[in-house]
Write a structure and sequence with these properties.
The protein is built from 2 helices and no strands. It is mostly helical.
């Protein structure tokens, strides 16, 4: 259970930071393509981390 909570909390933190970077880089007045790309990578990484945490806990409880 501790693994699940830790994975969920970390993935939410990374997801929020990635969303912030994506929104900052997506500013139409001053577009930053590298920052937007890093934000997208962090969002993808957090979703993968959440999936692997769920898979790990699901296998352990099965």
């Amino acid at each position: 259970m501790k693994t699940l909570l830790t994975g969920i909390i970390l993935s939410i933190i990374v997801l929020c930071f990635g969303g912030f970077l994506f929104a900052y880089g997506n500013n139409p007045a001053e577009p930053h393509f590298i920052i937007r790309g890093i934000g997208l990578l962090l969002i993808t990484y957090s979703l993968l981390m959440l999936y692997h945490t769920w898979k790990l806990v699901y296998k352990k409880n099965k």
